[in-house]
């Protein structure tokens, strides 16, 4: 209550003080926020509380210019990245390199629970590298053993070619996941992968650059990924569970890449 000696018409209620404060035009920091003004005698929905709202807002034209400038900077970065890539850095010619082929395999897995029955035939794809070409257009293709395991029919398809030629398995070494597939035709104009011989045979060094070529699932064109050798040691193979020498690389290898070629600077390639 007000002091009795003061001129007063009655007790002063705190809500009246809030209403008097809300009647004043109160501004915060210039250019940042402003407090909403409430007319005297009118109750505010916020019960006397001031409502903050932006005082200045960026214009749409300014935002549009900022977005356009950012997109232009991204385009320039992509162009600079593509121009920095040189085909001469690869140990092979992308336009003429056809030694990596696609394998289309029909396989039939045995039923170990009911051996007198057969399961439904399935189809899968893999990759391989031509290591020998004969004069009549045939040759040998090096691939992975798990690609042609339990196969009943195999076809070979060159990169950027719709033609498919039948193939047959001539040798399999499941312990190290390797197999040889032979074709009688279809390899005309294909230069085999030059395999190192004699003193040129060596293990890759750690951090040595490598390229992985193959036909992963999801496309028909040849895929090339780049990485480095991260580990060389004896490991357990997932196909045979036998322990043998293995090279680990950090290049992307997806389903369908199995059996494809690989190589690095100074090396012709491999299976």
Characterise this structure:
The chain is α+β, with helices and mostly antiparallel strands and 271 residues long. It has three helices and twelve strands. It has helices at residues 14-22, 60-84, 145-148; strands at residues 33-35, 52-54, 100-107, 122-133, 139-143, 151-157, 164-173, 178-183, 209-214, 223-236, 243-249, 262-263. Strand 7 and strand 8 form a beta hairpin. 21% of the residues are buried.
Key features of this structure:
3 helices, 271 residues, four-stranded antiparallel sheet, 14% helix, alpha+beta, six-stranded antiparallel barrel, disordered N terminus, single chain, disordered C terminus
Taking Cα atoms only, what radius of gyration do you get, to the nearest Å?
37 Å
Roughly what fraction of the amino acids lie in strands? 25-35%
Instruction: Please trace the helix and strand order, writing H or E for each element.
Output: HEEHEEEHEEEEEEE
Largest sheet: 6 strands, antiparallel, barrel
- The tally of strands reads 12
Number of H/I helices: 3
Helical content, roughly? Answer: 10-25%
Q: Mean pLDDT across all residues, rounded? A: 74
Category by helix and strand content = alpha+beta
Q: What gross morphology would you assign?
A: globular
As laid out across the biggest beta sheet, the strand order is 3-4-5-8-7-6
User: What are the low-pLDDT stretches, counting only 5+ consecutive residues below 50?
Assistant: 1-9, 15-38, 44-56, 78-85, 265-271
The separation of the N and C termini measures 96 Å
